Amino acid sequence: MPLVTMTLRRGHDVKTRGRMLDAVHAALVGAGVPETDRFQRVLELDEASFRFDPRYPDLATPRGDRFVLIDIVWSVGRSVKIKRALAARIAADVAAAGDLSPEQVMIAFVETAWENWSFGGGRLLHA
Hints:
Layout: E1 3-9, H1 14-30, E2 40-45, E3 68-75, H2 80-98, E4 105-112
Parallel strand pairs: 1-2, 3-4
Antiparallel strand pairs: 1-3
Helix pairs in contact: 1-2
């Protein structure tokens, strides 16, 4: 179960945020995540609450106010090859959905063991 958090500065309209979330989900489904396994949230922060380096580590163009940070918490087990392809697709598709450069999209995969998920009722299905 991926848990997707998209963090951005205030100013992206509701439709654009929806298209970007849809793009992330479509990419995850393309990588084998079930269609109904959709858990997403958006954090919109002001400039004082969302700080980032404009060029770290080696961007060709600086990050700006439309920068999007996507955290994907999911279970362990995917290869670097799968994550590399998924990151490229998410960056391209989210950029297209948000009318921004792929350089403005940063993705962090956070892996956790299967036994760390409770999908409801406090039950650890995989423990």
